[in-house]
């Protein structure tokens, strides 16, 4: 009798153990992604768009990661990352199980594709669970990209100190100083400068109207800096030079004793 009771207890404990293991191995499910605007949102004629929503995990689960990707161009085959993680700009944590998102015409990736955006895809993953995606289509037919083409690209070079043919100031940009590290040049733009994030944003600006609109939606500063020689990286700028807006590309920066040179192209 005692042996039977003992065996029953062992079997019961084993059943509890395996039951517990099964629960531990159970997947937590997939997240839910909801857009406040429904399935479609439009870019307004003045170039504004707002996309908001919520990412939620199932009960007793938490969100592991979130990513937002904008698809653009003919057929929506090209893409750019708007938010790379759940801690990126535009995503706000409510709890471990819920995050909200808000992207608009100033958001990374969206700002340079207001005329050719096709859709925004939010992908999310539940910790110890599954992934899911949500999509909102974007219509852009109402925005007018403008018809006044920018001028042909022209080159200019600044020098520090000023040299024959290479002034310290031109096209609204002044080479104001060099940093003590020996590899950094500092520039001022009294009218305001916006440093574009990448070549895609630069290439998206093809008319005076889109240049004016992009500048109006940004937050200009009055300075920018660049590393020189082997540490140099191309910079893409919007520069306000008096009444003229210029689209500028910094293509090189060389330091040499008494003959420092910074190389640019511009169109307006």
Give the helix proportion (percent range): 10-25%
Specify the number of helices.
Answer: 3
Structural class: mainly beta
In terms of DSSP E residues, the strand content is over 45%
Silhouette: elongated
Rounded to an integer in angstroms, the radius of gyration calculated over CA atoms is 27 Å
User: What are the low-pLDDT stretches, counting only 5+ consecutive residues below 50?
Assistant: none
Q: What distance lies between the first and last C-alpha atoms, to the nearest angstrom?
A: 97 Å
Strand segment tally: 17
Largest sheet: 8 strands, antiparallel
The average pLDDT score comes to 89
Compressed to H and E, one letter per element, the order equals HEEEEEEEEEEEEEHHEEEE
Question: Which secondary structure elements does this structure contain, and how are they paired or packed?
Answer:
Layout: H1 2-25, E1 32-35, E2 40-42, E3 50-56, E4 63-72, E5 78-83, E6 91-95, E7 98-104, E8 117-126, E9 131-139, E10 154-160, E11 169-170, E12 173-178, E13 184-195, H2 199-204, H3 208-217, E14 221-227, E15 235-241, E16 244-254, E17 260-267
Parallel strand pairs: 2-9
Antiparallel strand pairs: 1-3, 3-7, 4-5, 4-8, 6-7, 8-9, 10-17, 11-12, 12-13, 13-14, 13-15, 15-16, 16-17
What would you say this structure looks like, in words?
This protein is mostly beta strands. Helices cover 15% and strands 45% of the residues. The protein contains three helices and 17 strands. It has helices spanning 2-25, 199-204, 208-217, and strands at residues 32-35, 40-42, 50-56, 63-72, 78-83, 91-95, 98-104, 117-126, 131-139, 154-160, 169-170, 173-178, 184-195, 221-227, 235-241, 244-254, 260-267. Strands 10, 11, 12, 13, 14, 15, 16 and 17 form an eight-stranded antiparallel sheet that branches. Strand 15 and strand 16 form a beta hairpin. It is elongated and about 75 Å long. The model has no long low-confidence stretch (mean pLDDT 89).
């Amino acid at each position: 009798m005692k042996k039977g009771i003992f065996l029953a207890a062992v079997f019961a404990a084993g059943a509890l153990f395996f039951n517990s293991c099964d629960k531990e191995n159970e997947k937590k499910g997939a997240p839910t992604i909801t857009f406040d605007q429904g399935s479609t949102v439009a870019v307004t004629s003045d170039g504004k768009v707002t996309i908001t929503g919520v990412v939620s995990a199932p009960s007793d689960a938490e969100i592991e990661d979130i990513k937002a990707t904008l698809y653009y161009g003919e057929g929506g085959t090209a893409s750019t990352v708007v938010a790379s993680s759940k801690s990126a700009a535009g995503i706000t944590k409510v709890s471990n199980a819920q995050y909200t998102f808000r992207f608009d015409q100033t958001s990374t990736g969206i700002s340079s594709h207001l005329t050719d955006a096709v859709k925004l895809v939010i992908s999310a993953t539940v910790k110890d669970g599954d992934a899911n995606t949500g999509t909102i289509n974007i219509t852009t037919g109402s925005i007018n990209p403008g018809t006044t083409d920018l001028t042909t690209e022209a080159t200019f070079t600044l020098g520090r100190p000023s040299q024959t043919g290479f002034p310290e100031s031109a096209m609204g940009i002044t080479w104001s100083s060099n940093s003590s590290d020996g590899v950094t040049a500092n520039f001022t733009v009294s009218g305001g400068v916006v440093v574009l994030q990448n070549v895609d944003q630069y290439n998206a600006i093809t008319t005076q109207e889109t240049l004016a609109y992009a500048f109006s939606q940004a937050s200009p500063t009055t300075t920018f800096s660049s590393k020189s020689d082997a540490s140099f990286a191309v910079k893409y700028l919007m520069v306000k030079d008096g009444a003229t807006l210029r689209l500028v590309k910094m293509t090189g920066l060389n330091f040499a004793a008494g003959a420092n040179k910074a190389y640019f192209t511009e169109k307006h």
